[in-house]
Amino acid sequence: GENVEQHPSTLSVQEGDSAVIKCTYSDSASxxxxxxxxxxxxxxxxxxxxxxxxxxxKDQRIAVTLNKTAKHFSLHITETQPEDSAVYFCAASISRxxxxxxxxxxxxVIP
Amino acid sequence: xxxxxxxxxxxxIEKRQSVAFWCNPISGHATLYWYQQILGQGPKLLIQFQNNxxxxxxxxxxxxxSAERLKGVDSTLKIQPAKLEDSAVYLCASSLIGRAPYFxxxxxxxxx
Lengths: 111, 112
What we know:
- The complex is a heterodimer.
- The model of chain A has no long low-confidence stretch (mean pLDDT 95).
- In chain A, strands 2, 4, 5, 9, 10 and 11 form a six-stranded mixed β-sheet that branches. In chain A, strands 1-3-8-7-6 form a five-stranded antiparallel β-sheet, with no helix packed on it.
- In chain A, β6 and β7 (62-67) form a beta hairpin.
- The N and C termini of chain A lie far apart (40 Å).
- Chain A is 0% helix and 57% strand.
- By secondary structure, chain A is an all-beta fold.
- Chain A has strands spanning 4-7, 10-14, 19-25, 32-38, 45-51, 56-59, 62-67, 72-77, 86-93, 99-101, 105-110.
- Chain A is built from no helices and eleven strands.
- Chain B is mainly beta.
- Chain B is 0% helix and 50% strand.
- Chain B has strands spanning 5-7, 10-13, 19-24, 31-37, 44-50, 53-56, 65-69, 75-79, 88-95, 102-103, 107-111.
- Chain B is globular, with a radius of gyration of 13 Å.
- Classes of the chains: A mainly beta, B mainly beta.
């Protein structure tokens, strides 16, 4: 199956700064990359996704970029706020709706 | 739109006991997943259904875990007998074909 690596495992930023989380995948056939935010005691919540025919996608303060050649994709959060503090997971999908998850990044936004 | 419903939210059992979890997916979602999430790790797929059929159960420990999806809607995941290493959060998710899964709140299982 697909192998997804995620870095960093922990990230602390000052409120208002930007945060970047990076993921790499192993199978070049992967074509769909969702990102999730998981708050304590809750299930992962889908926040943004990107397909392999698109290089970048934005939704307000969140953006995702994809480099198919290098097989990596990144989540960018601008103007971070304390409520952005959570664990973020990337995922990659090859086919048949099968999703493989990264190991997670714990983001702390310091007020 | 109602989300994915799971019950119970918490369960504490002793090793070698059995336990069952229930999931009701989002209406109209053909694909249903069960994931295991151990503390500090990402979700690991246990089993994936599309309608009534199993798409992938390669990582399901079949000697102790079983799952079914009746009539292509609700699903149950059972563990019998439980081991200490089964302590985790069990997440149910559902999706439309070709779209990312939406997760329930999960069931936190503690095996003592």
